[in-house]
Amino acid sequence: MKNVKIIQTAKNTEDRLRSKRSFLKDTKNQGVTLKVNKEKTFQKIIGFGGAFTEAAAYTLYRMGPKKIEEVMERYFNEESGLGYSIGRVAIHSCDFALGNYTYVEAMDKELKTFNIAHEKKWVLPFLDAAKEERGKEILLLASPWSPPHWMKTNKEMNNGGKLLPEYMETWARYYAKYIKAMRAEGQNIWAITVQNEPASVQTWDSCIYTAEDEGNFVRDYLGPILQQEQLSDIKIYILDHNRDILVERTSQVLADPKTAKYVYGVANHWYMTEEFGELSRFHENYPDKHILFSEGCQEGGVHLCSWLTGERYGRNMIGDFNNWQEGWIDWNLILDETGGPNHVGNFCDAPIIADTKTQELHYNSSYYYIGHFSKYVKPGALRIEIKSSLETKLQQVGFLNPDGSVVLVVMNETDMDHSLNVALDNKFLSYTMLEHSIITLIISEEKK
After folding, report:
1. For domain 47-374, is the CATH number 3.20.20.80?
2. Which strands make up the sheet holding 437-445, listed edge to edge?
């Protein structure tokens, strides 16, 4: 007999990842039926996680020991937490740092002074604690926000500017030194992006690359140098920017086969558009390339008690995974009561907000919505086909875990309850989706 575990989070209740149990039956109720076809599979899931920024680490370590332990458990424990298995780190400073910093002294073209000692105060302890809590390695995506100021046209790390041609080789070698230094500290740098948001001049750490610039840098410097440095296992993701420019920009980069051979896939953000079909367009054009969500957050400071934030996460995750996304990395894991620190005042929200004055931890709706995926969809899961019998306002996506269990995530963003049936192997589960709720169904063989 099939055993069904139902996990529910609903706005107008106390349910937050609340677990229930049920069984598949021979009959169904009225309402939409979602038919699960676990034989038709799509992309393999890498995992879920968030960004280990300096701001997040600094915030965490301003909390007391018990609160630190709580955050680590709630994110990285596979049983009692969200089971995060991947993460993102910045190659020196980003906006969510305490200030601009790099790993070398100015004008050191040979990188003789290269040293990541700056990260040993906040970021590396955070990473070590996460690995210890998880009990396994955490795959890390590393991204630069800007080269050192002296390598750039505008002679500063902030406000855009471009990488000067005479420093392209030096900058590519900087990535290699960073990867090796982090690996020497026991951190599993698994992939890199070429540049965070290369099409936007930001008031914080930023650097502009045209599509041609990015492709040429990968082809002539970054790809070959990583191979020379025995780092050919490192995956290179291009773009690391919004969906709205994904197809047009990547088609320019990947048009050159000499560049394409170094590119593992495309990383994307959720800002500007929710045209999830752009991911499928990319997949259709380049089915051998991989798609990773590398950043998204609720902008504009802290949004305590907002339910719309969680629904934004749920809607984007469902839309992304239904369009070939393979992994999902949230932005800052934790921020303080201001939505920072941020060295240029670009305050944002995070799933966990730590009030460093009162020593309270606040769990936003986004924490629970992410958990409906990360806690139950395991690394190595395959997305499977889900068909709806009727047009419905419910949103859903399904997965097949490596252990054979089926995971179905269904979300109701409307102001009404909706009747739902789930069909698998000629058996049915009937359920009422409460208004503004999300559920995860786990269907497995009953243990005897």
Report:
1. yes
2. 18-23, 2-10, 437-445, 406-412, 395-400, 382-388, 32-44, 418-424, 427-433
| 197 is annotated as an active-site residue | yes
* 295 is known as an active-site residue: yes
Contacts of 428 (CB under 8 A, 6+ apart): 24, 25, 26, 27, 28, 33, 421, 422
pLDDT digits (tens, 9 = 90+) for 374-425: 999 999 999 999 999 989 999 999 999 999 999 999 999 999 999 999 998 8
For the stretch 208-267, pLDDT in tens is 999 999 999 999 999 999 999 999 999 999 999 999 999 999 999 999 999 999 999 999
The domain limits of the chain are 2-44+382-445, 47-374
Q: Which residues contact 150 (CB under 8 A, 6 or more apart)?
A: 106, 107, 167
Residue with tokens 């050191």: 108
Burial code of 257-277, b = ≥16 C-beta within 10 A, e = fewer? Answer: eebbebbbbbbbbbeeeeebe
DSSP conformation class of 151? G
Catalytic residue among 119, 214, 278, 295: 295
**pTM of this prediction?**
0.97
- Find the catalytic residue in 197, 278, 311, 326: 197
Q: What is the CATH number of domain 2-44+382-445?
A: 2.60.40.1180
